[in-house]
Amino acid sequence: MRIDLHTHSTASDGTDTPAQLVRKAAAAGLDVVALTDHDTTRGHAEAVAALPEGLTLVTGAELSCRLDGVSMHMLAYLFDPEEPALLAERELVRDDRVPRARGMVARLNELGVPVTWEQVAGIAGDGSVGRPHVASALVELGVVPTVSDAFTQDWLADGGRAFVAKHETDPFEAVRLIKGAGGVAVFAHPAAAKRGRTVPDAAIADLAAAGLDGIEVDHMDHDADTRVRLRGTAKELGLLVTGSSDYHGSRKTCVLGEYTTDPEVYGEITRRAFGAFPVPGAGGA
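RE: above sequence
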């Protein structure tokens, strides 16, 4: 089985619609794909409706968190999307995205960059607006060559000249909410230093003690040595190890199935979850 547990669609900051994403996942030879848009489940229904035969969909989301000033992301799998406490927190985070993006546009204008809110909103479309959409606007204007080049201290990285903070969930609260909604919590790309500061291993240990299920080890932002170190951390703490592409369509260079999750780990995730169940494809429209 080929299992990719971290992808994004136009419901957040990917460039493929949910329907396009699941079709591409099947074409890429995946057996299981998780749709984990940022702080939203809005793309799930479309993905289910289009799900090709032979592909299983894991519903999920990637929650925006912050610990001691460090931004981090928590993957939530197979939770009940209507559970009130987690739903309210997702809405709180999502609702703060628009004023935050407008603030970044204003800061860029102060820096002499002629980006407009209309341009950023047009790129985001119906998705949850975020930094990647602002970064794409900078690419369109020729300010930076790629989206990744916008995530520096010169521009949009944490603490950068045009950075604006948004509401982000305490990760311990995120774990509690995910588990309370019947889901499974996995710390996404925990050592992705190129994105900015990362949390120390001691924090991962504390999260494990609080109920964290796993960490995403095999990821494009982790080099070989980092993956070895994180595997050791996971073994020591009794955490599941996942691997995923973090696919965003054309917005990033990663491809579907670039990194995958072991079938036994996937099986354990499905055994632990009780908020929702994987959806087998029946040949979508």
